[in-house]
What does this fold into?
Amino acid sequence: MNFQFLFEKLESSNEYADFMKENPEAYLTSGFFVLDIENKGTAKEVNQYTLDFFSLTKNPDELGKWWSFQFQKEGVKLTPLNKIEDKNVEIPDFIKNPSKITAKSTIEFDEIQRLIQEEMDKKYITNKIQKILMVLQKQSDSDLVEKYVCTVFISGLGLLKVIIEDANDGGGKVVFFEKKSFFDMMRKK
It folds into this structure.
């Protein structure tokens, strides 16, 4: 499975057609995916796939609107996302006006797992991958390629932060890799 497959599935849904009629200015900003590697192929497997859209409001003092399409067994479900109401909260630019993504990513999710495993092997990390949280996005409009920003849960209470550039040709390249543990994070506080 890959992002392109999910986007094509979304485009063929009635929910998406109705949404785009009502919100023609909305654009795709990110994909969020949870891959349950530990329980892959079992009844307990809990993968999640979500594509997020954004549109500016006509009032420049208001934040834009966010929507999320969640893929479920029954089909696609559209969920409007909550607005930030607290005026004292500093809102980052990437939330006020997020970058568009192309919806052309063809790298297979299994390939992302393979790239992460290869990098673990190079660094002699023997823990097992349990779950991968991935966000496909552009960090800014000046980014030429989209990136999968991954948080990888591994056995032994370990975490990996991995960034994979998407070549849009079915391949990818690890551009950042860092190992942490829950204990490291607890010690910093």
Notes: The radius of gyration is 18 Å. The chain has two domains: 3-33+42-96, 109-188. Strands lie at 27-36, 48-55, 65-72, 75-80, 129-137, 147-154, 158-166, 172-181.
